[in-house]
Each structure stands twice: as structure tokens, then as C-alpha cells.
Specification:
CATH topology: TIM Barrel
Largest sheet: 8 strands, mixed
Number of strands: 8
Distance between the termini: 41 Å
Strand order of the largest sheet: 1-2-3-4-5-6-7-8
CATH superfamily: Aldolase class I
Number of helices: 11
CATH architecture: Alpha-Beta Barrel
Shape: globular
Order of helices and strands: HEHHEHEHEHEHHEHEHEH
Length: 284
């Protein structure tokens, strides 16, 4: 079958919501971006209606150009020193008990934006002292000092996504490195053994089940305890096509396999995304 002719299967149904507008109003009032919007997440209606959102800091332009991601790759904007405070204020107005902070990749910055990450976590703690905070960071080119900056802000969960199997890195994540990502998970667990370590992988890009199981085993060996497994959905025609829509039964098989490896919690399904139901995953 031609990759371009794949049709969205019956088991993938995206929910719409009338509550999108009010959440977007809050975000626009504070001049904030979310990965929910920038990455065209299929669950945006469900999440914004709760409301919850994954705040995307360090601007809206990425210095990398991954084959799966719809975030604009361009020369990024200068850092906004007020952004951490605005994230905290928006999170407070939305009444969030669990705040997820992610970012574009900023290879142009000496620390990769790690200091800005830390300032954002501190700001959220200031405005919402009882809230839990999860960070979903880029790889910072493997810079240990950058990782330390983020860890010193003491997030409750450190998330860094592996995204795909090593064989597909050259087309899916050409500027990243599989071993580097695993090293980040391992380093964070070593430096903060009580912290929850999380990662995620997408399916449907041409990987085999055996390769996915190998990646899960590598994640677990690196100290990862929480994992998300979801279906890649092509965000635009400029991005990689879907090679295969994975059936729900395969996701369930992988969920059970991961639990048997010792993961504390596994979210696995066609519409699972890295930050979806993050609070529920943490609480479980």
C-alpha cells in the first residue's frame, strides 16, 4: 500500500470540545505557547476542556527540524525574562494542581535554555506551592551542567522522550542521538534517585515490535519508571508519513510487556501522548 493512501482507522477518534476557547483566552492573555497547539496534538480538546495544558517555553521556534514535529524550525526569538512568571500566573488562573513544562530545542543558547527551565519551575512553585511540576526537556546536547540546573529546581517528574527506535533516528530525529537520550535518563536517575523518570516513544514510523521492546528494555535499564507509548499522527504533509496505524491490541501487548519489565506505570494506546493525563500517571 502506498504510504500516502493510508486512512485514519476506526479506532482513532479525536474528541472536540467547546471549552477550547476559554483556555486559549487565558494562554493568549499571558502571551504563552503550548505544545498542545504548536504540535497539533489530537487530544487538545479533551485537555483544554479540563482545563490543563503543557506550557512550551523558550519561544515558539526550534533550532532542530525533526521529521515528526510540526513546531516551526527557524531562527528563534530572544529569551523573554518575564515568561517564567507568566507561565506561573496562567497556571494559577487555570487552577492547575499539576503543571507540565516543555520547550523547543535551543541549541543556540550556551545552556540550551536549562536556566530558563529552572526559573520557570521556581516561578510555578512561588505561585502554586502545592502544585506538582513535570518537566519535559530537550537533550541539551548531553550537557551535564544544563541537566544539573533543571534538577536543582526540583521538579517532581523529569521527562525526556526517546521518541523512536535507534534505526529510525537518522530520519525521525536527525540532530539527536539515541544513546545520548538514554544517558540523560540514566544521569537524572543517578543524581536524583527519588525523582520519577519518564520517557515516551511513538509507533507507526516503520519500527518493529521487537525493536520497541528493545527500546523499552533500554529505558528501564537507564532508570526510567514511567513510559508513554502512542501512535504517530502526521501533523502536516511536510512531515514524515505514517507507515502503519498500530492496532490497539499491540499497544496493550506492549503495555503488559513494559509492566513486566518493572515500569511503575505505562500509558499505551493510539492517542496516548507524552503529557496526556500526566497528573493521573503521577498520582498512580
Amino acid at each position: 500500500m502506498n504510504k500516502e493512501s493510508l486512512r485514519l482507522p476506526d479506532w482513532i477518534r479525536v474528541k472536540n470540545s467547546e471549552s477550547l476557547h476559554s483556555t486559549k483566552q487565558v494562554l493568549r492573555r499571558y502571551g504563552l505557547s503550548t505544545v498542545c497547539e504548536e504540535a497539533r496534538c489530537p487530544n487538545i480538546g479533551e485537555c483544554f476542556s479540563r482545563p490543563t495544558a503543557t506550557f512550551m517555553i523558550l519561544g515558539s521556534k526550534c533550532t532542530r527540524n525533526c521529521g515528526f514535529c510540526s513546531v516551526e524550525s527557524s531562527i528563534p526569538e530572544p529569551l523573554d525574562p518575564e515568561e517564567p512568571k507568566r507561565v506561573a500566573m496562567a497556571a494559577k488562573e487555570m487552577g492547575l494542581r499539576y503543571v507540565v513544562i516543555t520547550s523547543v530545542t535551543r541549541d543556540d543558547l550556551p545552556d540550551g535554555g536549562a536556566g530558563h527551565f529552572a526559573k520557570t519551575v521556581y516561578a510555578v512553585r512561588s505561585y502554586l506551592p502545592d502544585a506538582k511540576v513535570e518537566v519535559l526537556t530537550p537533550d541539551f546536547k548531553g550537557d551535564v551542567n544544563a541537566l544539573k540546573m533543571v534538577l536543582n529546581s526540583r521538579p517532581n517528574v523529569y521527562n525526556h522522550n526517546v521518541e523512536t527506535v535507534p534505526r529510525l533516528y537518522p530520519i525521525v530525529r536527525p540532530q539527536a542521538d539515541y544513546r545520548r537520550s538514554l544517558n540523560i535518563l540514566e544521569y537524572v536517575k543517578k543524581m536524583a534517585p527519588q525523582m520519577n523518570i519518564k520517557s515516551g516513544i511513538m509507533l507507526g514510523l516503520g519500527e518493529t515490535v521487537a525493536e520497541v521492546i528493545d527500546v523499552l528494555r533500554d529505558m528501564r535499564t537507564a532508570g526510567c519508571e514511567l513510559v508513554t507509548i502512542g501512535q504517530y499522527l502526521r501533523p502536516s504533509k511536510l512531515k514524515l508519513p505514517v507507515v502503519e496505524y498500530i492496532r490497539p491490541g499491540v499497544f496493550e501487548r506492549l503495555r503488559l510487556k513494559a509492566l513486566n519489565m518493572g515500569f511503575k506505570h505505562v500509558a499505551s494506546g493510539p492517542l496516548v501522548r507524552s503529557s496526556m493525563n500526566a497528573e493521573e500517571m503521577y498520582n498512580s
